[in-house]
Description:
This protein has 14 helices and 13 strands. The chain has 375 residues and is α/β, with parallel strands linked by helices.
Amino acid sequence: MTPSRSPQAAWLSVPPHIAQLSPYVPGKPAEEVERELGITGVIKVASNENPLGPSPRAVRAASEALADSHLYPDGSGYRLRGALAESLAVSPSEIALGAGSNELIHLLVHAFCRPGHDQVLTHKSAFVSYRLAAMSFGVDAVEAPVGPGLRLDVDALCEHITDQTRLVFVANPNNPTGAALTRKELEALIERVPERALLVIDEAYHEYAAALSDSWPASQPYRARRPSLVTLRTFSKIYGMAGLRMGYGIADPQVVALINRVRRPFHVSAIAQAAAVAALGDSEHVAASVEHARAILGALSDRIRALGAVPLPSLCNFVLVDVGRPSSAVSDAMQRHGVIARPMAGWGLPNHVRVSLPNARDLDKVVAGIEHALR
Length: 375
């Protein structure tokens, strides 16, 4: 239930673009639902978290870093940027760090957009933070229509480019739909988006997509062709570090330098940096997470389809489900059955629910929750 807003105090004057913002509402923690409903054993599949958790190496590194938590973190992220640069075969000057890739979305809008003049362009059913970041800085957000299957329509997106377009955000694969660009579509974007606009390819699910599809195209190799290309990635998904808030961008050194002008000092904790360095070296954990996703994604989709709902194709650790009726009622019924999923009405998808991949041991309960709700 959404709380009603009390009248704003006369002395509390804020800019119009702030007054019209609504705060992002995350999925409820399992403990809160258990307390509200008086039940136990609730499973949360609402936030696309890795059910295998973080790398054991990352946990050890984070624990060791706690001993020095009286010290400020390395504001430059020297060690982590070096490790990322080595793994990506780029210069450390091409790496920008953020408290999750979500922070980098906001920093890009802050650094490159003029309120009341420039525009951010994305598409409908895209990651909601692109629109929220633009609105929080008083920048217009334009959303192009999507094509069949809620997939990006490159032609429609490019038709919405104007002289005011400064940032173009495209997630590959996209959250919440799970849809991915083909190589032809990515190359068309790279060629057709004007060089004066930064083309930002958000690859939060990069590791999943690269493993689940032989033809999925990473954007980073195209930076030699297009300097105004920015790639965003995160440690929140396959690395299982969502709670530590650690993301990064790969971009031209001039772009990175401008991002660093507007970021907060010490914005990424020492614990997160230490854990990220360790996680990069744990290929076994990444491989296990990929194998889990490969097995559960197919099984979950097949069983949802058997219930009469429609799971959309996904290269991520979640599946978007068309339940054919208002998703709020479906998600509420699932919650009463001990399963927290994500209704997508706020993304313009009133009949869709997003379901993250659960542990293998929880798969039956998640499917039972969906079946219960559909009945």
